[in-house]
Every structure is written in C-alpha cells, then in structure tokens.
Amino acid sequence: MKNRGDHQASRNFISQKWTLFLCICSFCAGLLFTNRPTAVESEGLKLVSEGCDLRRMKNVKRDPKQIFGEVSKTHEAIQTLDKTISSLEMELAAARSIQESIVNGSPISQEDTRSSSEKRKYLMVVGVNTAFSSRKRRDSVRATWMPQGEKRKKLEEEKGIIMRFVIGHSATVGGILDRAIEAEDKKHGDFLRLDHVEGYLELSAKTKTYFATAVTMWDAEFYIKVDDDVHVNIATLGHTLVRHRKKKRVYIGCMKSGPVLAQKGVRYHEPEHWKFGESGNKYFRHATGQLYAISKDLATYISLNQHVLHKYANEDVSLGSWFIGLDVEHIDDRRLCCGTPPDCEWKAQAGNICVASFDWTCSGICGSVDRMKEVHKRCGEGENAVWSATF
Predict the structure, then answer these.
(1) Residue 202: exposure state from Cβ atoms within 10 A (0-12, 13-18, ≥19)
(2) What are the phi and psi torsion angles at 322 (to 5°)?
(3) Are the beta carbons of 325 and 332 closer than 8 angstroms?
(4) pLDDT in tens, 201-258
(5) Which of these, 61, 128, 167, 297, has the minimum number of CB atoms within 10 Å of its CB?
(6) What distance in Å separates the CA atoms of residue 343 and residue 359, rounded to the nearest whole number?
(7) 20-72: pLDDT as tens digits
(8) How many CB atoms lie within 10 A of CB 59?
(9) Would you tell me the crossing angle of helices 315-322 and 203-217 to the nearest 10 degrees?
C-alpha cells in the first residue's frame, strides 16, 4: 500500500511540472503571436502614409496646362448653361407678350404666332421713330438711306436687317391721321404700328412699347432706335454692332450726362428733378436719343418689365434709368453722333465713316427734309456698301 501511494505521488509531481512548463510555453507563444499583427499593422500604416505622400506629390507636380484646360472646359460648360437659360427666358418673354396681346385684343402678326425655334434670326431691327406730321421726313429717308420695295425685302432676307418707321395711333382711333398712315403703309409697307397713343410727352412710353413689340415680332441680336431726321449708314452700323455680338447685355450710343433742368417752361424740363439730388446736378450716363442700340437680352428685359419701368420726361433718360442696377456694358461710340458736313465728310475721307450724322443744335439734321440728300451724298458710305458687307 505504501509503494502504491509513493508511485501515485510521483505521477502527480511530474504532471505539475509539465503543466507549469506548458503554461510558460503558452504564455510565450501568446506574446509572440500577439506582437506580430501589431508589427504588420504598423507596416501597413507606414505604406498607406507613404502612398498618401506620393499622391500628394503627384498632384503638386501636375502640368499647369492640364489644370488650365480643365478650368477652361468648366467655364465653357457654365457659359453654355447660361446661354441656354437666357434663351429659355427670352422664349418665355415672347410667349407672355403674345398672351397679353391676345388678352388685350391687340393685333398679332403671323410672325408672332410662330414658335421661337421657327423664327428667322436677324442681325438687327432698326426702328425709325416718326410722327403723323413727318411725312416729308419719311420720304427724305426713303430717298436716301432706307432701301425701298424689293431692295428692303432683299436686305431682310440676305443681310438680316429689318427697317421700319415706328408710330402708334392718334387719340381718335381710326381718325384721319390713322387713315393717312394706313394709306402710306399700303403704298410702302414699311411701318411698325404700336399699341400706343402718339404725343411728344409720351416718347418714353413709345420707346418702351417699341422695344417690347420688336423683340416679340423679330428674333434679332440688336434693336436700334433712331429719329427720322438723322442720317444713318446701315453697313457701318452693322459692322459696329457685330463687334459686340458676344456680349450678352450691351447698350451702345453716344453717352452723355447733361444737367437736370428744374426750371419750368424750358426745353427738356425734368418735373422729377428732386430725385436727382441738389439743384445743378447732372443725370447719370446715358445714350443720346438720336440713335442708340441695345442687345436682345435688354430688349427682352424691357418687354418683361414694361409695366413697372418708370418713365421720366425725357426718353433717353428713361432708357438709361432702366439699366441702372443691371449688369450692362455701356459702349460710348462717338461715330454714332457725328456732325453734318464738313464733320462727317472729313471723317469719311479719312476712312472713318460715321454711323450717324446730325446737328446737335437741332437734335437732328437742321432742315432735314431739304438737307438729307446733301448729307447722304457727302457722308454716305455708298449704295453698294451694305450689299457687299458680311456681318
């Protein structure tokens, strides 16, 4: 019995030794395998860090031309989107104008009822402001710088230039004055009739109605207003405008800033002079009223907002006021306000043909009925200029 007990104790003692040994081995193995992932992870972090540094260095070393090219493409995409939005806005404006004409019972030409995509694209619409009493002035213009009959139609079809005398109606609709214009229009076919009551003090309203009507009827790049006692070189006008055709909102004319006249009874008196500050102040810069041009976006703006645009006593001041606060580029071109001979003649001989000529003292050509042919002969660009021109 004693021997059996000693043998059992020996087995227990050996088992305890092996147990202790195995525990120590397990502990060491645990330490070994636990440390290995930490090292691998550290190595991985190192590689990732190096990879980030390499990418950063790669970005820094990119070709500047490549970066500029990407920026240019983005800018072009933005411009294309801007033009698309502008086109949609103009189509909306045309649709609104047609709808208002239908509601108000105003006459609509066949051209109005076409969709914008079907409309012919024109370079410019030239509206010649005239009055009931100005028949002889109109005839002097027809005999000089405004083509007639088939030539005028050819000008529209081949050069994209629309030319019309612009007039409203008398206070007595259908009266003798209106019938006289209807007979004249039947003969020449060169009028644009406005839904407007004629009157000298209503020039601001007439100008607003003209642009709103013209932009609805014709899809042109530019819209021009000129008085019927001013001489115009059409080809030179076209060449002047196309230089600015890439500009979205442009206002072209002879810019001036005359005094605000508070005294009653004087010509160009401003009843709302107090709005322009203290006595003796001047108007903001605006184009003189004998001739000016605006781009399509501005004509569309007038059409959309015609019911809320304020009218001052002077038509040219009113137009200039409508563009204050807008992102509009003002172009001051003195060729749009040359004097009559010898001024425009000397410039023509020097190769700098004028767009428009008139006398400042008369706000037009003094005695234009008798002198228009003389000015045309001495300062005109030549009959073939417009037909050989490429716009």
Answers:
(1) middle
(2) -70, -20
(3) no
(4) 789 999 999 999 999 999 999 999 999 999 999 999 999 999 999 998 999 999 999 8
(5) 61
(6) 10
(7) 667 676 666 665 555 554 444 444 445 444 444 544 444 555 566 666 667 66
(8) 9
(9) 50
Give the type of residue at 352. N
Q: Please state, in angstroms and rounded to a whole number, the distance separating the CA atoms of residues 373 and 322.
A: 36
Q: Which of 287, 122, 304 lies closest to 212 in space, CA to CA?
A: 304
Contacts 24+ apart (CB under 8 A), 266-269: 268/313, 268/314, 269/313
β-pair type (121-129, 161-169): parallel
Identity of the amino acid at 296: K
Cβ atoms 20, 12 nearer than 8 A: no
- Residues 297 and 249 sit within 8 Å (Cβ to Cβ): yes
Kindly list the distances between the CA atom of residue 193 and the CA atoms of 185, 368, 391, in Å, as whole numbers in the listed order.
Answer: 10, 23, 28
Give the Cβ contact number of residue 344 at 10 Å: 25
pTM for the model? 0.72
CA distance 75 to 78: 5
